[in-house]
Amino acid sequence: MSYLERVRSLNPLVHNITNLVVAPFTANGLLALGASPFMAYAHEEVADVARMAGAVVLNIGTLDEKVVQAIRLAGQSANAHHVPVVLDPVGAGATAYRTDTVQMLVRELRLTVLRGNVAEVAHVIGVPWNIKGVDAGVGEGDRIGIAERAAQQLDCIVVITGQYDIITDGYHTFLTSNGHALLTQVTGAGCLLSSVIGAFVAIAKPGNDMLNSVVEAVTTYGVAAEQAAARTAHQGPGSFQIELLNQLAQMTPSLFSEHAQIRQTRGG
Ligand code: ATP
Ligand code: TZP
Ligand code: MG
Ligand code: MG
């Protein structure tokens, strides 16, 4: 059974503490995929929700002290109960507050997956990289090297997205080239992917299964985006955004195998 089929049959609960730009799109994307989204932020309940979830996705997109404390409480509870944690360090490097916050979070919490653009991931591990707002700036550099270094340093899976995506545990590295440029025109395309990864790690076993499930999550999302673009590119980003939800719902293992472009560059 593919990881996607396991998501659909197990319908994992994914606890999201995300930003106010993307919350409805994220919840709808998880539902389309076959997972069960739960957005919960109150300090009084986040530990309970995290404990009962299949995965916890933490996103600092519109952070303030209340959100940061909710993220810490949820993350600590997830760690205590062996629930996988995905962190999306939106805008790390753009302000000192964001950079300091993510660096504190990776010191305090054990992550299963860190997912961001190259600038964000670089800033999480203290490597300077040009960034503009919440979007990756243009910068030359060794994206694969940053991903592998971050994975080794944080002892977790790192996903760096962009025109092509890197998935690594520091010792095994995969590149996937699925996706479509229209994804750059939809705010929350990265945040939804982080939550989709949450759904896939929720149904994986620790170890290599986890890395393989993340590779399939990222590629599935890219293939769904290609299918959506093939149907809506002539209309524009609004239709594409809605069609992406349809294509997440309609994705099949055979569509995935037909279109997935995955290359392993390290390990084996
Ligand atoms: P950013 O803020 O830098 O846009 P993000 O958090 O939105 O970062 P992205 O890197 O845009 O995350 O990745 C989100 C999705 O968009 C991924 O599936 C990725 O493969 C895809 N993607 C991003 N840029 C491109 C591109 N130029 N061509 C094809 N797919 C892309
Ligand atoms: N501003 C703060 S969070 C956010 C914006 C526009 C959403 C970012 O979403 P993504 O997935 O990184 O494009
Ligand atoms: Mg983007
Ligand atoms: Mg982002």
CATH topology: UDP-N-acetylmuramoyl-L-alanine:D-glutamate ligase
Please report the first level of CATH classification, the CATH class.
Alpha Beta
Rough shape? globular
User: Averaging pLDDT over every residue, what do you get?
Assistant: 95
Cα end-to-end separation:
22 Å
Question: What small molecules are bound in this structure?
Answer: adenosine-5'-triphosphate, 4-methyl-5-hydroxyethylthiazole phosphate, magnesium ion
Number of beta-strand segments: 11
Keyword list:
binds magnesium ion, binds adenosine-5'-triphosphate, binds 4-methyl-5-hydroxyethylthiazole phosphate, UDP-N-acetylmuramoyl-L-alanine:D-glutamate ligase, 11 helices, 268 residues, alpha/beta, single chain
What does this structure look like?
It contains 11 helices and 11 strands. By secondary structure, it is of the alpha/beta class. It has a single domain, classed as UDP-N-acetylmuramoyl-L-alanine:D-glutamate ligase (3-Layer(aba) Sandwich), CATH 3.40.1190. It has a 9-stranded mixed β-sheet with strand order 2-1-3-4-5-8-9-10-11, with helices on both faces. Strand 9 and strand 10 form a beta hairpin. Helix 2 packs across helix 8 and helix 8 packs across helix 9. The radius of gyration is 17 Å and the shape is globular. It starts with a helix and ends with a strand. The chain binds adenosine-5'-triphosphate, 4-methyl-5-hydroxyethylthiazole phosphate and magnesium ion (2 copies).
